[in-house]
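User: Some background: our group keeps a shared notebook of sequences we're curious about, and every so often someone picks one and asks for a predicted structure to add to the entry. Today it's my turn. The entry only has the sequence so far, pasted here. Could you supply the structure so I can complete it?
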Amino acid sequence: MRGVRWQSKFCGIGCAAQFAAAEVAKKPLIEAKRAKKAANVESLKWWSDQHSLWLHKWIREERDAFKPCVSCGCSHSSEFHAGHYMNAGNHAELRYEEDNIHKQCSRCNTHLSGNLAMYRIELINRIGLERVEWLESHVGHRTVKRTIEWHRERVAMYKNRLRVK
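Assistant: Of course. Here's the predicted structure to add to the notebook entry:
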């Protein structure tokens, strides 16, 4: 703002000096936030979240793009999710298993808690009874600890499958 004097913004020189001191004091906090954000890119949680994001995107937009909701069969939902047959929160060992995740309308996934009875019927049609029983029998199996490198490789794989650079 050219031509605007400090008197128009502050009640006096003391207030202006106090404001300037507060702004200078914020600089280390801003730098610390930037450093923390940069370090977070290398965290296991960040890579795990990226893995889920790209896996789900690939399922919705590529693998199941032309398929209807796995539970109710609708193909006209305003929003589709990547719904897990065996809940990812309770069954971490199956979180990244492609056969456990299918395109599902938001109504079935969110409001009907997965609509699992109908999900199972269609899942048998899509992947076969043997594979569905394999998913169901893996409940409670020991979760394998995944590394950042493992997640990084899978993120690259799903980006490649979606032809994203």
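Suggested note for the entry: The CA atoms of residues 13 and 94 lie 63 Å apart. The chain has two domains: 11-40, 44-161.
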